[in-house]
Write a structure and sequence with these properties.
The complex is a heterodimer of chains A (234) and B (273). Chain A has a domain of 33 residues. Helices cover 46% and strands 2% of the residues of chain A. Chain A is built from 7 helices and 2 strands. Chain A has a two-stranded antiparallel ribbon. In chain A, a hairpin with a 2-residue loop joins strand 1 and strand 2. With 273 residues, chain B is an all-alpha fold. Chain B has a 3-stranded antiparallel sheet with strand order 2-1-3. In chain B, helix 3 packs across helix 6. The chains are: A mainly alpha (234), B mainly alpha (273).
Chain lengths: 234, 273
């Protein structure tokens, strides 16, 4: 066997078919690659933004679970904000036609929205989130506050890496103890009252129990005859 | 004179001491944030380096606490006698609740009113079991909700953001419940009751006063006598210097707890959020 054979035989047996395969089969491969990467490329994007390809189909992440009275029954109808159906919720200027708007401060009209962590604790101004004039409705298609892009345009200014799911956090959290919250944010309402129930239940039992115990023991002297631990106590 | 009965192993006492310190620390940093808009909260926050630093400290110590909890869980798993498993954890030496706790509870209440005899408690009274499991469940709840809020971006990969609103309130109420329970009921039972006044040293010294055990845990004492284990479990009390250390440590924690409790109650109506 010459060197020529050693080189050429494997070349003809393996390399040639392989090269052929690369050229022929790869044609199919490219086609697959196109579709596969189409899915892969968009998946990340979809998850974070709610965009599906070029269509917006998921304006809010929790929508499938949300009940809209008279419109749709959800599988998990306890999330906040989904049930809010109102008119004039999609205007480019939410304050269009409101008189004397220019002369007043946000909190004159939106008292309830000033009682949240970001305003009270983190000292944010309304405009740091809601932006300059005109303030669009939160659900206005092009509003930065629209849930499909809120995380990217608003929250991630301060919360690096905020995702769409993250920005489903309810900024203007309703007071969990109020009956109104049972409709606007049922999970919060029930969680709050169940926890309060556990706390109150514990104290309703153990507070009187402990006080009575303390009083009773004032009238009960323990034996001090430690010398004879072997006798049974009566 | 050997007049004390062994009750806790050194490892158990270390768990308790670490839990005490981290609990007080978490309570103080947490309350300092909750009361940030009151002078009391601001002053307390300044002890820990301000509003932001106290949150960072709260997170780090919280994570340590969770690790401690996991270690405790491992400890339990190692300590359980797996060979005759279900039997080994339902006896009177176990902290698991059993029917007798219920009857003990009602008999004890009857005794408060002089209607019944003092129940013969075994090794663990029902209130001690309640304390243990309350902490156990509290750690799990506060730990999980706390982790959600400490890593919100990670958490919201698996849940919608409004879960953080819910987690926050569960965290807050459970923490208030835990602190109120420890600072009022647990402290009262361990310090102010006549039998334990001024302090039940069992958790520090590892042993209980035999006279107290005799009147309070009669069934346990009987059981030890009958099985002949009693002699081996009697110890003398700790040296005076160690006792001084125990009292100082115990009372320092009680004082901090009562400080938090009173401050929190007085300022409660000023909380904005």
């Amino acid at each position: 066997m010459t060197l020529k054979h050693i080189i050429f035989k494997p070349l003809i047996c393996f390399a040639l078919p392989m090269v052929t395969c690369v050229f022929i089969v790869s044609g199919i491969g490219w086609g697959q690659e196109e579709t596969a990467s189409f899915i892969r490329r968009y998946k990340q994007y979809e998850v974070s933004s709610g965009y599906y390809e070029q269509y917006e189909v998921k304006p809010r992440h929790e929508r499938p679970f949300v009940e809209i009275p008279g419109v749709r029954t959800g599988r998990f109808p306890y999330s906040p904000s989904g049930a809010a159906v109102r008119f004039n919720a999609r205007r480019a200027d939410a304050h269009q036609g409101i008189r004397f708007y220019e002369n007043r401060r946000c909190e004159d009209c939106h008292m309830a929205q000033t009682l949240d962590l970001h305003t009270i604790r983190a000292n944010l101004t309304c405009r740091q989130c809601h932006g300059g004039e005109p303030i669009a409705n939160n659900d206005h298609y092009f509003s930065p506050m629209n849930p499909i892009r809120r995380h990217a345009y608003v929250c991630s200014k301060c919360h690096q890496g905020a995702s769409a799911a993250y920005s489903a956090y309810v900024i203007h959290e309703p007071n969990p103890s109020l009956m109104a919250t049972q409709e606007s944010f049922p999970v919060l309402f029930y969680a709050f009252w169940i926890m309060i129930g556990i706390a109150v239940g514990t104290f309703a039992v153990f507070l009187p129990h402990t006080i009575l115990w303390g009083i009773r023991e004032l009238f009960f002297k323990k034996e001090t005859t430690v010398e004879a631990p072997h006798e049974k106590q009566t | 004179m050997k007049n004390r009965l062994k009750r806790f192993t050194p490892v158990q006492r270390i768990f308790h001491a670490v839990l005490m310190l981290s609990f007080i620390f978490m309570g103080a940093t947490g309350l300092s944030r909750m009361y940030m808009n009151t002078p009391w909260g601001k002053w307390m926050g300044s002890l820990f380096g301000g509003y932001d630093v106290s949150l960072a400290a709260h997170k780090y110590v919280g994570i340590c606490m969770i690790i401690g909890f996991l270690i405790h869980f491992l400890y339990l798993m190692i300590k359980i006698n797996w060979l005759n498993f279900p039997k080994s954890v339902i006896g009177p030496d176990s902290l698991l609740p059993r029917p007798k706790d219920m009857t003990d509870f009602f008999q004890h209440i009857g005794w408060f009113f002089g209607a019944k005899k003092l129940p013969e408690f075994d090794r663990w009274g029902y209130w001690e079991k309640f304390d243990y499991w309350a902490v156990f469940w509290g750690m799990a709840i506060i730990g999980v909700t706390g982790l959600m809020m400490a890593f919100p971006l990670f958490a919201t990969r698996y849940m919608p953001g409004w879960g953080l609103n819910v987690a926050f309130w569960i965290h807050r109420i459970e923490a208030i419940l835990a602190m109120a329970h420890v600072f009022i009921i647990h402290f009262f039972i361990a310090h102010l009751r006549r039998h334990h006044f001024p302090m039940d040293r069992a958790m520090f010294e590892g042993s209980s006063d035999l006279a107290t055990i005799k009147s309070e845990k009669a069934a346990w004492l009987d059981r030890l006598k009958n099985s002949g284990e009693l002699e081996g479990m009697l110890v003398a009390q700790a040296a005076p210097l160690r006792r001084v250390v125990f009292y100082c440590f115990g009372y320092a924690v009680v004082a901090s707890g009562l400080f938090l409790l009173i401050g929190a109650l007085v300022n409660f109506r000023f909380i904005l959020w």
